[in-house]
Amino acid sequence: MKIADKHYRSIWFNQEAGKVQIIDQRWLPHEFRVVELASRADFAAAIRDMWVRGAPLIGATAAHAIAEEMKRDPSNTNLDAAWDELHKTRPTAINLRWALDEMRNLLRPLPEAGRASAAHARAVQICDEDVECNRMIGVHGLEIIRRIAAGKAPGEPVNILTHCNAGWLATVDWGTATSPMYHAVEAGIDIHVWVDETRPRNQGAMLTSWEMNSHGIPHHLIVDNAGGHLMQRGQVDVVIVGTDRTTAHGDVCNKIGTYLKALAAKDNDVPFYVALPSPTIDWAVKHGSEIPIEERDGEEITHVQGRLADGSIGTVQISPDGTPGGNPAFDVTPRRLVTGLITERGVCAASPEGLAGMFPEQVSQQTNAG
Length: 370
Hints:
By secondary structure, the protein is an alpha/beta fold. Helices cover about 40% and strands about 20% of the residues. The chain contains twelve helices and 18 strands. About 45% of the residues are buried. The mean pLDDT is about 95.
């Protein structure tokens, strides 16, 4: 994606500086900042404190973290310590564990002398693979939007509702839920996007809206509770969201509030799709109730960050003193509420059979492991 006509990924290795660089998303949309990540503590803070966020980007960041650690100390002791520290940063997003396992499984059999170069190459490859996965999600998701557009009156846009930020800022590039939108615009299809603000961290307001603005896509920012109302009035043609972890049976764990959107969509016969690259599927888990739900700091509920009257970026308290904030960060949408899963290989049913048909090699691996 482009910012002021310059192409960016959300994370990259700067060859000239010899450093991993990221877009520090804490300051968007008001300031665009690029920062370097060097130490294990830097990477852990970036994931935990949401300088980067979104399951695919978290995984890519963790891969680069291991690669940088191998340059410093390629021993098994350091590899395991880095795995443990990074794994604790965000418990819900499965891509984090997937990327850490990918790196450790690659490096364990190698002699220490070759680990740094192998780790760097695999981290770069994981980022490139994520870009291609998300591009293909857009290719397959475009067909859903194209079918809806064919049934619209001339000049009437396809109205898409999305929740949180499942855009290119949540991945290495393209995004998951937004990839079909970007492809639709490139294909000349008129779309309009309803962007949920997505409390408590307002990632829809701060990030998805910023992406839509940057790409010139017509959109409106709405409060989270407006989605059902818009569906009742026939102003939503399709809901497309992302996911931080999807079970082998098709249950979907995503940003808190997704479940309520799925319920409203079901009640109003609005198709509800989930866009995901395959590393977001947890093949070892069958039911959503097994997924650990991250509980974040209550201050994310009681305080809001934004641009103040003097132009500076600051935080204000919106609740009374003494009122604690309860902050579950994710919820689970049962597969019965999901119209389909948009993957890099195509669209399938949110079911064991649908996922097995799309990724038969994963089912075979799980059978052999059992």
